[in-house]
Structures
1.
Amino acid sequence: MEWTTNIVRGTVVKSKNGRDMGHEFIVFRVLDEKYVELVDGKRRTLACPKKKQIKHLWTTNTVYDLNDVTLDAHVRRLLANYVQRKEP
């Protein structure tokens, strides 16, 4: 994971600060150069994404295509696949 400001829609990120520290999210929308909206399909759904500063995120090299994602269950599956691949 790296700390960067080059985040695009669909990037898997991990929170560095706040109550959600250590949780993985997917970038749902890039608002500007400082803020993004994050979803995880559980607490942060597609209907109610979390607004977070980019400087409080660790990015990964994993980027998913979110064009056809309309259900929170799909987001949960994507994150579950990421976690499974990450663990040895």
2.
Amino acid sequence: MNSKITIKVIDQSYLKQISTLGQQLNPQLTLEQTEAYFLEMFEFRNYTCFGLFLEEKLVGISSAWTTVRLYSGKQLEVDNVIIDNAQQSKGLGKKFFEFIENWARERNYKTIELNTYVQNAKSHKFYFNLGYNILGFHFLKKLK
């Protein structure tokens, strides 16, 4: 890939592009719902959003949350990891995670944790290849 790749922390000025990518991961949400969720995330002090640009176009995002856990210490929990469907399997995800991991190391994080959907076998292979291991089960209960 000879295209110019830029990866950086981004803010809500990219909301429309972030939300459009967010819908690729969660197509059941409307664009308005996706935008509202991302706006709410940006309000949290422990939230960071990473952007991956290809020739100035945002083609990848990852949300990240700073937490401290007894089992892992200061931790970066990444979620909403999305590479535009048209740009997948070109090595961008690996470059994206190299950046995120280096960013975390430079800020003295001890671990990185993530969740991925059970049915997303392609992502499981990707994370295993990057050295991530399954630690446990992630449970969810929707509140009424």
3.
Amino acid sequence: MNLLLEKSLVEKIPVNMIYMAANKQITQRRIIVREIHEGFFKAYCFLRKADRLFKKENILSVMPDKQKFLKSS
């Protein structure tokens, strides 16, 4: 998980994340990581079209972005 977040930060590429919000709602987000801190990170969220803060403990999974993967094939 951390490696994909770091790759997104360094290479400025999107990743897909399954995330549980504070209200326990589960969403899928396409993000580009902007900053990484100890327990949270800041990322541009394509769903909300804005920078958002995400708690690392609420991440259920992180996957490479399929659109990016298909373009590089």
4.
Amino acid sequence: MAARASTRVSIAWSGADPIEDTDTLVLTIDGYSLDLRVFVSGPDEGKIDWSTVAHVGEVEGSTKENPILKWDHIIDSRPPTDMPDQGKFETLPNGDVIEIGIMHNPKTNLYEDYVETWRRMKLPSSSPYVVLESQEEGVQAYLGRVGEHALGLAKSKDEEYCAWRDRLESGEWKRICEFGSAVEKLLPRLPSDLPVEWSKGETVHLNGDSKWTVKTVGKL
């Protein structure tokens, strides 16, 4: 599949019971990963837990049955760490997927074993997908869509992280959440219907003068 949308069901750190205190959406599109995780409980409710845009690919030892994937971050809402972002995947009998690996736990400031459970969202056949990139004036920004799900993620030259999440309802985009003082300037909305003339490598305009490069576009 060239594109998919996933939500996280739970995470378990260092063998502890699984929890889920975020609303997480990950769009995996033709080698790109756009990821936004927002706390829905606890002292940081309503804030970003973690958000990234990354190139994603398989690493040595990966198999069709048990892929091992690595994410090379392009932008990141968290400070960089020395630990590679990679995990091994296994499909459960109910169709959910578990990811097993080691990563930095910001709550303990330690590198810990983790097990995440992911659920693939159902998508109608012929759902559109797209990734757009903008690197104007020292800003790295990305827009991604898979079916009715869309993310806008950007990091400005002063290190501010901006993000939004939209869902298509009755032919119109509904804003689920947004973050950052420059979000409207850096991250315009996607059109509800992808223009048929958009093609990979083309420069397109959003909101007038906003220039974006089409990194990939198509239908499932």
